[in-house]
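Researcher: Go.
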Amino acid sequence: MAEKKDTLLAKLDEIELRYGEIEKQIADPAIAGNSARLITLAKEQGKLKAIVTKYRECKKTIAGLEDAKHILKDSTVDEDFRDLAKEEIGQLEAKKNVLLEEIQNILVMADELGIDSVIMEIRAGTGGEEAALFARDLFNMYTKYAEDRKWKVEQLDFSPAEMGGFREVIFSIKGRGVWSELGYEAGGHRVQRVPETESQGRIHTSAATVAVLPEPEEVDIQIADNEVVEHVGRSSGPGGQSVNKLSSAIKLEHIPTGITVSMQDEKSQHKNRAKAWRILKSRIYEYYQSKKRAQRDSQRKTMIGSGDRSQKIRTYNYPQNRLTDHRINLSLYSLDKIMAGDMAELIAALKNYDREQRLKNL
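Model: Structure:
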């Protein structure tokens, strides 16, 4: 345990040193004139600030603890002072442990807390029209949760099904800490209920998949123009003659990764292009981030953002009003409230489990 704390303190010394270097660079007039560099440094500084502030408080506490221990060991000191020192040692020891725990929690979640925008993609899986209705229900669940959190939701693309469900919906959510809360939603979602299309009252099982992509800022990802091929075509589907006459549909293809994005949601070619680029950047960013995650050793294992579409993460059982998250063996008998957007208890449980796993592997 002592060795683990020493390792943590050594890591914190490195972070504080880096924080000092950033402060010097930001104050450098040569860097002040480089806006892109300044933004990058300011972002890094922002990520480290909470850790450094807590660590500096912790160092003061440790220094006070050492002073109190010296007084206790000094035989020439008055007995009343020795009693005060003994009492202070207990208080400072407790404060130090609390601060170290808080620092660890910030440290292991720092990367996720700094991402304030995500793009979510929900696609209907097996189950026909019922799967499309379930995809719609998931979309409503996330948007209601986002509204409660005062986050901004923007629909980017949408493919309707015949009975009012969604074959596919792509949307962005922006707000403080959004990735640290919704990053756990990626993967396969399964529903068990009596479909609206079922006349015999039999329970069916359907599925939908969810992808959650952190939306990078301009400074996070750079894509060369010659890496992307753009195809322009006419939009298809509902919308009347005007839609088909205009060449407003956009398809972007990223050559190095093979990732493609098609967008025909808007009548405006300009708007379709802008939306397509946002989705493309997020998918490319996640592609390279997932490769980085795969290269990290087991000490950096994390649940967040690690769910692929084939991984079944959750079952929604309507007859029993039960939601089960299979990754943490959690069952909550409040499915009706969760589907209405009350996801706080579920997300808190996922975050706590993830934090505990990261602390074990720190």
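Model: The longest helix spans residues 35-73.
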